[in-house]
Amino acid sequence: MPSPHPSSPPAPGGAARDPAALPPGITGGPDGRAGRVRPPRHLADLGLPERRAAVAELGQQPFRADQLSRQYFARLADDPAEMTDLPRSSRQELADALLPRLLTAERELACDGGTTRKTLWRTVDRAYVESVLMRYPGRVTMCVSSQAGCGMACPFCATGQAGLTRSLSTAEIVEQVVAGARALARGQVPGGPGRVSNVVFMGMGEPLANYRSVIQAVRRITEPAPAGLGISARGVTVSTVGLVPAIGRLAAEGLPVTLAVSLHAPDDAARDELVPVNRRWKVAEVLDAAWRYAGVTGRRVSIEYALIRDVNDQAWRADLLGRLLAGRLAHVNLIPLNPTPGSRWTASRPAAQEEFAARLEAHGVPVTVRDTRGREIDGACGQLAVSSGGSIVRGATPLDPANNPIAVLAETPATRRARGPDSLGR
Ligand code: SAH
After folding, report:
1. For residue 275, which atom of ligand 1 is closest to its CA?
2. Which atom of ligand 1 approaches the CA of 206 most closely?
3. Which fold does the domain 43-98 belong to in CATH?
4. Is the CB of 155 inside a 6 Å radius of any atom of ligand 1?
5. At a CB cut-off of 8 Å and minimum separation 6, what does 11 contact?
6. pLDDT tens per residue, range 193-206
7. How far apart are CA 207 and CA 150, in angstroms?
8. 30-39+102-418 has which fold?
9. Could you tell me if the CB of 379 is within 6 A of ligand 1?
């Protein structure tokens, strides 16, 4: 396999100095601090006690923080004029102080009859991130970004190509979910009013490289109102390239979220190329961390595997993966490779995909093939990409505001009869 990332493995000395050091070429940093600007403070960045203190600083009664929180998390209000339980004279002041606009929808694209919608968001410092809402019968999944860009440099992923712009704040992450919840509550998504049931950290970025904000966001997403949105933690999935120390930290949080590990190869030779951070933490270490996570949380770990023709889809790799996972609390999600600009790789042939799945099943490993929702709008896995300069690299056609709020750009028979959601509710 040609190597687009010819950097050598980290020097052992370097690794010993900093247990979380990353290989050259990977710009994530242990806590994703590539950023320049911090977005303004928002209610969703704060726990309830801090919100009360912030409201008290404005000279307001602390319980106003609870009211404002309910407006935001339960009523999903975004207009201070609607917040009629707050005194008219202080609505605007409270909203200005604690509900600053963090994300502006720049473009929105839809497919699957409007039930898959990708939003391109602009942050206050003109970074761009995307989120995708996917409505299935009986459930709605929000796929959210945790960083603008990504520092992990996986060569088959569009987001990985532009590098990391900056990590998102807690509230910038939460806002993506709230926006989806709002659109659903207001009946703007075909299928009638609804709620977000699942949140997957599978948009742009490496969530565990923005650890603190992501954990806080999970808390806000899962805590009941007025503290948060009250979505079941079991419906939340955090997906990682395999940052081993952070997987250990996550296990200790006591949050019963699902861990997804983007493995993509069972052997270090292939994984070193496909997921460059593997040069720092090898397959065996990543899987050990995953099994510890499963042990501590009792949650089945999802092993993500993008099938790439003649690169990682050989029968022997299926058998090797099957042996590594047999008897473990694990489940494999096979993802047909989604096309990305300039990529020389393509999805596996259907027969190879079938055989790969069958061999895993022969080892007793549960397998699903992921629905590749959103492909036509570049909203599928690995297709979320906007350049760090802010120009849109791919896939976005502006929404005509004079028209329907959803531009239905493409709907194919294949997407209409797409497979059902996988184990993560996508
Ligand atoms: N950085 C995290 C979160 C991103 S999740 C992670 O890597 O897990 C996005 C998922 O889609 C990951 O499993 C990723 O490896 C996968 N993916 C990326 N590019 C893809 C592509 N072109 N086709 C299919 N899956 C892809």
Report:
1. 15
2. 1
3. DNA polymerase; domain 1 (1.10.150)
4. no
5. none
6. 999 999 999 999 99
7. 9
8. TIM Barrel (3.20.20)
9. no
